[in-house]
Structure formats: C-alpha cells, structure tokens
Amino acid sequence: xxxxxxxxxxxxxxxxxxxxxxxxxxxxxxxxxxxxxxxxxxxxxxxxxxxxxxxxxxxxxxxxxxxxxxxxxxxxxxxxxxxxxxxxxxxxxxxxxxxxxxxxxxxxxxxxxxxxxxxxxxxxxxxxxxxxxxxxxxxxxxxxxxxxxxxxxxxxxxxxxxxxxxxxxxxxxxxxxxxxxxxxxxxxxxxxxxxxxxxxxxxxxxxxxxxxxxxxxxx
Length: 219
What we know:
Elements: E1 3-7, H1 11-23, E2 27-31, H2 34-43, E3 48-52, H3 60-69, E4 75-80, H4 85-93, E5 98-101, H5 106-133, H6 137-144, H7 147-154, E6 194-196, E7 199-201
Parallel strand pairs: 1-2, 1-3, 3-4, 4-5
Antiparallel strand pairs: 6-7
C-alpha cells in the first residue's frame, strides 16, 4: 500500500485529505509543520509527500530542499493557495513532482496521486532491470546452470535434411560439409577456396592457395 505524508498547518484540510486518501486506498499520515514533517519523512518510509507551500517555521520550498539534502526518496507534491503558484513552480524546478492549486476537487487530488504512484512503480521497475543488467558475470552464470540450459547445451546440433554432419578432415575448417546439397559456397578459414555441393572451385587467381593440405575431391 502506498504511504502518503500530508503536511499542512490547517487542521481541517489535514483531516479531509486523510479521509479522502484513506477511502482511495492510501495509507495516510499527517503533520502540522515542516520541521516535524522533515524529521518524520527521514525516519519513516513514505512514497508520496503532499506538502503545503506556505507554512510557519519551515515552508514547502525549504522543506523540499532539506528533504533532498537528506536523500529523501519520496515524490513531493506541493499544494498552493491563490498567490502561491510561483513558489509551487519554483519547487517543481527544484525537484517537486507536481503541484495542486487550492481549493481543489477530490478527484483532482486522487488522480494526481495515482499518477505519482504509477511513476514511482515504473521507477522501481527500471531500477530493478538496471541492477540485473549490471550484475556480475558470476550472478549471470546462474542462468546457464539451470537444468533446461544444460540440456540444451548437450543437445546435438541441428542439420538440414540430406546434409552430412561429419566435418571434412584436414587442417582447414570448412563451414559446411562437401556432401551437403544445400550448402552455399562453404569457405575454408585457412585459405581462399570455395566450393558448391562437392564441386570445388579454385580461388579467383585460378590456383590453390599454398599451405592448405586439402585438395579437390576426385570425381
């Protein structure tokens, strides 16, 4: 369940927001001033902080700055009455997720928190995937130790119908067997010769490359 901390110096607003968000499925805590909210936010885990811009002792912008300095991880949403929009926008420039103007509708508050909740979930998923991609080779090797992967590694290689699975002998490594009817110009890694289905051809110069012990098969 998503935990929300409501920070506002108006008791009636704290109570109404607490009832609204609890009915919407959030776990809600509330504080009346920024200093107490800052201490609680750094001691307890919260997902979203709903904070008023104008408060005595520690206003919303100062709360945001202090919370970020303490490496707070919750998304901060500012609430601003008429005349406080500039402070709310300044808070967004410094890292606040969004702001809600007062007075606000109930559905507007819930929708804003749902969007913040989805962003938090997406961020956690991305962090998990990055951690998996950055895992050490030893931890990634666990996947290869599973029974399914071991069985796949022991399985014989697949060949096309009519192809011989026996490699040609010699110091050169040919990509396909000469008896494979579907081979398309198998090439030797040790020389420049190519062939097609048993009919071996010379290199472009018309001569066999020296150093290779293979010879064209007798017809």
